[in-house]
Amino acid sequence: MTQSDLQAVENLTGAYATLRSEIGKVIVGQTEVVEQLLIALLSNGHCLLVGVPGLAKTLLISTVAQVLHLKFSRIQFTPDLMPSDITGTDILEEDHTTGKRMFRFVKGPVFANIVLADEINRTPPKTQAALLQAMQEHEVTAGGETYALEEPFFVLATQNPIEQEGTYPLPEAQLDRFMFNVYVGYPNAAEENTIVKMTTSAATATPEKVVDADTIRSLQQLVRRVPVSDHVISYAVDLVRATRPHEQSPLPYVKDWVSWGAGPRASQFLVLGAKCRAILEGRPTPAIEDVRAVARPVLRHRIVTSFSAEADGVGTIEIIERLLADVKAKE
Fold it and tell me: Residue 116: which of 51, 55, 61 has the closest Cα?
């Protein structure tokens, strides 16, 4: 890293503390969720937030957009939502001066910096797939024309893990597009007391804008320039390969409990997430511990468990915890 990059890392550490402070004016607790969300944003990745209703998932995302001074758009996914409701549609217009009619493309809500896909599993696969091109290529094709999305571009989707009636589980290919699967849990007793006090009084907190779109783009480029040692990359790759039951000499419980393991995109996101976590804490290069810290949100939605795991009452988190204990870094 150059001297200017090192200075940028130092500046980012200060900005990160300010970001956390401003988000904390509205969101109580959820420190790990906020950290993972900001890591994904600065790594140019998308997030899937999973949690029961009432845990401020939507409020958190809109607050982050406000603090980052980004254009925010919310799409409420419903069974009758159509792909054009997301991407936009062509409308027929008449030119009053010439009398000619022509089609004009009206951009949909996907044309924003932060797109909240609320309850993404409530809409059929055809509409879910409308987000695929936007998430991967950062562009939208409609009516034979391709429109680039404004950078930075993030899709932050929410899911309710309780109600499964009338839902359409995301296909593995689309789940893999999300960098992190972030679990949003209940607040503790002290946090819940604070939440009730804040939300039942007349006072309202307004977070200040900390960084803008240009700054975020430069920080995303900074994350890419962070050097990472070979042994950290090897550890990330070994951890991902250990999730695959069809590898040579797989771990016995992986062979029993896993149908399909994580692909190479998981290794990429482990390294990117580790890089971002390191510089957010003011360190110029990531360590093994940074990879381990982002392993759960990266791998949680990329491991497909078998019937044996279901019968034994074992979920992906239990498998990831055992992998983190068993896979050792090479000397």
Answer: 61
* Interaxial angle between packed helices 264-280 and 3-24, expressed in degrees from 0 to 180 and rounded to the nearest 10: 90
- Tokens 């679990």 map to which residue? 183
* Structure token pair of residue 84: 């054009």
Instruction: Dihedral sign for Cα 162, 168, 169, 170, please.
Output: negative
Q: Please state, in angstroms and rounded to a whole number, the distance separating the CA atoms of residues 132 and 138.
A: 9
CB neighbourhood size of 233 (10 A)? 16
Backbone angles phi, psi at 297, to 5 degrees: -65, -25
Chain centroid to Cα 188, Å, comes to: 24
The one-letter amino acid code at 199 reads T
Q: Could you identify the residue written with the tokens 């996101």?
A: 269
Gyration radius (Cα) of the chain, Å: 21
Task: Let me know how long the chain is.
Answer: 331
Q: What pTM does this model have?
A: 0.86
pLDDT, tens only, 150-203: 888 988 888 877 766 667 888 887 888 899 998 888 888 888 888 888 777 777
Angle, helices 31-42 vs 3-24, to 10°: value is 140
The answer to whether 198 and 205 are in contact (CB under 8 A) is: yes
Residue with tokens 């849990």, as numbered in its chain: 185
Helix and strand totals (H; E) in the chain: 15, 11
For residues 225 and 34, what is the distance between their CA atoms, to the nearest angstrom? 23
Condensed to tens digits (0 to 9), the pLDDT of residues 95-120 reads 777 777 877 788 888 888 888 888 88
